[in-house]
Design brief:
about 625 residues, alpha+beta, Aldehyde Ferredoxin Oxidoreductase,  A, domain 1, Aldehyde Ferredoxin Oxidoreductase Protein, subunit A, domain 2, Aldehyde Ferredoxin Oxidoreductase Protein, subunit A, domain 3, 3 domains, six-stranded mixed sheet, 26 helices, about 15% strand, binds iron/sulfur cluster
């Protein structure tokens, strides 16, 4: 095959055995790669309704057909498992160099099942898999682990995806880190890895990745590189990066602040991309095969945390900044650094601490719980200390490590009303109360609260629609966004280049790399198929319409000030949006794909999931 390695590596940690299987072109064209491969394998390899920490929960690594080629922004990989946060689909993506290395080793998919008796790491060395003792790595940070593994394998080019102390302790917001600070962040996949006693996956590949039409691909990539370097459509990423969002969202009253108590932050200037750039950014770098180079690396120049470095995109900046009422970028940078080292989802960790700060201010928890920390909004030193407590499950960090949903259920006393999550996964950096198309996208997102499964805030913030209203047609906007985002995640292309692509262009590069026939319409259909596949997985694991919800604050507490003052999403509005979306998708009013829809998408083999629901 061209582009694809054409092989699945299946590893059983319990028996320390492995085998490879191959897949054919029909499978490749139907599921494309990345998310398509990931959900398909999860449906087929995971017994239904198991606990996420059951050894039979497979941890699945996938790459896309472009990984390892010259195609720009394609150096990504994805990880899937049943999520210990949501009990639905666990799904995360990371950039860097790990994905292309996995492809060069000869695999598009790696399925890891079972549980090792003792801590181990996997050493995938082309065709050979070694089960390496990791006793000496247990307890080490992600950074230490990566360095030690490279040293002991004696090869700088070994790429390592590893968990930190948080994953070892089954913290439900634990991440997997590769290439120092790139994270598979969301849905707690680091905890699934920890539950298998699997500290790390190291990979080195020496195979070429042949492409079908090298001349055509070269010409196309030249165009793409030019556009990525010079187009106004990618300018934001080349200049300030995503931290540019802080001031824009503050102006739009869409910046989640102090645990969603407000949508504007009076100190936004002090945590803006502009301020960060001027005072802290020391390096701008990029991932494999990316001319956009959006990664802004910050360093604290002085004070007690002098020398601390971290990559600072918008989302963790929001979570450790406005969301916690913090106006000191030193605190944000230090908190992010600890998340990378300990292996924590920086978005969820910030949202959890913002929740705990409100609990503290309301007297629901006190200094006995926090181990002496004065956990008020704005106390950046306490925030940083709490990151450590969550990673190591110390004091109330042990409860917070369960995520905001489970923590609020335990704390009670009304705290559930200000716990900000969807399907158990903490919210991200868009205040949904005044972004109603986006709110629908979040409500139906298959991996819980998420801007990256649809990007529907774009319609609201650009003025393309009236963002304060609900009306027919929003379901179509979200569906179309989700389907093309599925293709970005299948190929896997960085979404920061999304404005340069459409289905026809994606199909073109797919043909150039793989040599397989593919039209833009077939690509669109594959996106729709993958969206439905995600829905089927979640339905099989117990999802119903009531799980397509929004946090209580979004539905009950109007935005108190700013341009969006008074805005919120009522239950009536959410029901209207869901009805419109389900109908547009060809699903029932309960959000179940019909048998006709499955036939249309070639997913009849999963009719067993929907048939019992359709009878009711
Ligand atoms: S735009 Fe940024 S995140 Fe995306 S591939 Fe390039 S450097 Fe990586």
């Amino acid at each position: 095959m061209f582009g694809y390695a054409g092989r699945i590596l299946k590893i059983d940690l319990s028996t320390r055995s492995y085998k490879t299987e191959s897949f054919n072109e029909a499978f490749a064209r139907k599921y494309i790669g990345g998310v398509g491969f990931g959900i398909k394998m999860l449906l087929d390899e995971q017994p239904p309704e198991i606990d996420p920490f059951d050894p039979e929960n497979p941890l699945i690594y996938t790459v896309g057909p472009l990984a390892g080629t010259m195609a720009p922004t394609s150096g990504k990989y994805a990880v899937f498992a049943k999520s210990p946060e949501s009990n639905f689909l666990g799904e995360g993506y990371s950039t860097g160099f790990f994905g292309p290395e996995l492809k060069r080793a000869g695999y598009d998919i790696v399925v890891i099942k079972g549980r090792s008796q003792k801590p181990i790491y996997l050493w995938i060395d082309d065709d050979t898999v070694h089960f390496m003792d990791a006793s000496h790595l247990w307890g080490k940070t992600t950074w230490e682990t990566e360095t030690i593994i490279r040293e002991e394998l004696g090869d700088y080019y070994v790429r390592v995806a590893t968990i930190g102390p948080a994953g070892e302790r089954l913290v439900r917001v634990a991440s997997i880190i590769n290439d120092h600070w790139r994270a598979v962040g969301r849905t707690g996949l680091g905890a699934v890895m920890g539950s298998k006693n699997l500290k790390a996956v190291a990979v080195r590949g020496t195979n070429d990745i042949p492409v079908a039409d090298i001349e055509g691909l070269r010409e196309h990539c030249k165009e793409l590189y030019e556009e990525m370097r010079h187009s106004s459509k990618t300018a934001k990423y080349r200049t300030l990066g995503t931290p540019a969002n802080v001031l824009a969202l503050n102006k739009a009253a869409a910046l989640p602040t102090r645990n969603y108590q407000s949508a504007t932050f009076e100190k936004a200037e002090l945590v803006s991309g502009e301020y960060l750039n001027e005072h802290f950014i020391v390096k701008i770098q990029g991932c494999d095969a990316c001319p956009m180079r959006c990664e802004h690396v910050a360093m604290i120049p002085d004070g007690p945390w002098k020398g601390t470095t971290a990559r600072i995109p918008y989302e963790p900046l929001m979570a450790f900044g406005p969301y916690c009422g913090v106006d000191r970028l030193e605190g944000v940078i230090k908190a992010k650094e600890l998340c990378d080292k300990y292996g924590l989802d920086a978005i969820s960790t910030g949202i959890i601490i913002g929740f705990a700060m409100e609990c503290f201010e309301r007297g629901l928890i006190d200094e006995k719980d926090t181990g002496g920390l004065d956990l008020r909004f704005g106390n950046y030193e306490a925030m940083v200390a709490m990151v450590e407590k969550i990673a190591f499950r110390k004091d109330i960090g042990d409860l917070l490590a369960e995520g905001v949903k489970r923590a609020s259920e335990k704390i009670g006393k009304g705290s559930e009303e200000f716990a900000s999550h969807i399907k158990g996964v903490e919210t991200t950096g868009y205040d949904l109360r005044g972004l109603k198309t986006c709110a629908l996208g979040y409500a139906v997102s298959r991996r819980g609260a998420d801007h990256q499964r649809h990007g529907s805030y774009g319609h609201d913030l650009s003025g393309e629609v009236d963002r304060f209203k609900v009306e027919k047609g929003r379901g179509k906007l979200v569906m179309d966004d989700e389907d093309i985002y599925c293709i970005f995640d299948a190929m896997i292309l960085c979404k920061f280049s999304r404005r340069l692509w459409n289905y026809d262009r994606i199909a073109r590069i797919y043909r150039e790399v793989t040599g397989l026939p593919m039209t833009g319409e077939e690509m669109r259909k594959a996106g729709e198929r993958i969206s439905n596949l995600g829905r089927l997985y979640n339905i099989r694991e117990g999802l119903t319409r009531k799980d397509d919800h929004l946090p209580p604050r979004v539905m009950k507490m109007p935005i108190p000030s700013g341009i969006a003052k008074g805005s919120y999403v009522s239950q009536e509005e959410l029901d209207f949006l869901l009805d419109d979306y389900y109908a547009t998708r060809g699903w029932t009013r309960d959000g179940i794909p019909t048998l006709e829809k499955l036939k249309d998408l070639g997913l009849e083999e999963y009719a067993y999931i929907v048939k019992p629901k359709l009878k009711k």
